[in-house]
Amino acid sequence: MNSMGSTFQPAATTTGTAPKVTGSIPTLKLSDGNEIPMLAFGLGTALYNGESEQVINAALTAIKAGFTHLDGAEVYGNEKDLGIAIKRSGVPRSQLFVTTKVWTVSTNVKAAFEGSLERLGLDYVDLYLVHWPQVADTPAKLQQVWAEVEEIHASGRAKSIGVSNFLQEHLETIFKTARAKPVINQVEFHPYLQHGGLVDFHRQHGIATAAYAPLTAITKAQQGPVDDIYISLARKYGVTMSDIALRWVIDQGIVAVTTSNNEQRLQGYLTKLPNFKLTPAEIQEISSLGNQKHYRGFFNDIYGPNDRR
To answer: So which domain of life are we looking at (predicted)?
Structure first.
């Protein structure tokens, strides 16, 4: 995969290499030197514990459409199906970027990782994430979990390692003992949940940001302040509102994860997204309008519906 840079300067501070549009989905260079495709097909949400053939067919559809970044997790209950889809696709393993995440550590992280590899039918994953900080009930336990993830990375069976759903306080906890910082933090991110200073904190520490649920303003929280600008920009660029929502994420140097399994929509993303980009002024306008409303779709029971972090 080739590195692709961007003229959008804030993104450049994330890893030192910013993305740009060159006719294909851009990649982002992580702080460990590896590159991650900036648009991923996610196997959560609708495919969470889904029927096996449904999951396999959805993943196959994404791979055949041209998606190379496949975002899975232990807790999704479909790693085995993802592995089958990868095998059936015939796409060489080296051309795919596979992410999975550890949710439970009832025994230890190594055992959880071994289980994920076995279900996926793979020798390694490109990215291994700690799915949420509540995997540990004390700061010391969280530090231990991260140390075990570091050992997996050292073994070469996880090319890159990171976290998901971590707030600044959780990152600072593992920084105290980490030999290597996470290269990425995957969080719910959209105009109505921009996490205050978290993304800037990531950039200051060489941590990339990945966004799940980037279409929330369209799918779950419509009738909000960004509706009109999404419509206006979709008309201007001749694309869909979903394209605008994803481009707003990517143009900030943030990886976007989509869980759509509609073949036409997936092909549309791969066709349209590389061929336009929002201006800095448009990005800022969406951000400013988004800050007028707050909506969190996940983990309200943990963080609270009004927590903007």
So the answer is: Eukaryota
170 burial via Cβ count (<10 Å: 0-12, 13-18, 19+): buried
Q: Which of 209, 158, 160, 179 is nearest to 35 (CA)?
A: 160
Q: What is the tens place of the pLDDT at every residue in 47-77?
A: 666 677 888 999 999 999 999 999 999 988 8
In this structure, are residues 184 and 164 in contact, taking their beta carbons and an 8 Å threshold?
Answer: no
- 192-218: burial string, b at 16+ Cβ within 10 Å, e else: bbbbeebbebbbebbbbbbbbbbbbbb
Beta-ladder partners of 130? 102, 163
Q: What domains, with CATH codes, occur in the chain?
A: 9-290 (3.20.20.100)
Which tokens belong to 60?
């196959």
Which one of the listed residues 69, 76, 202, 269 is annotated catalytic?
76
Please state whether beta strands 27-29 and 35-37 pair in parallel, antiparallel, or not at all (unpaired): antiparallel
The span from the CA of 212 to the CA of 164, in Å, is: 10
Of 241, 246, 238, whose CA–CA distance to 224 is shortest?
A: 241
In terms of pTM, does the model score above 0.70?
A: yes
Whether 76 sits among the annotated catalytic residues: the reply is yes
Catalytic residue chosen out of the listed positions 69, 128, 131, 269: 131
Beta strands in 145-202 (DSSP E): 158-164, 184-188
71 has which bridge partners? 42, 99
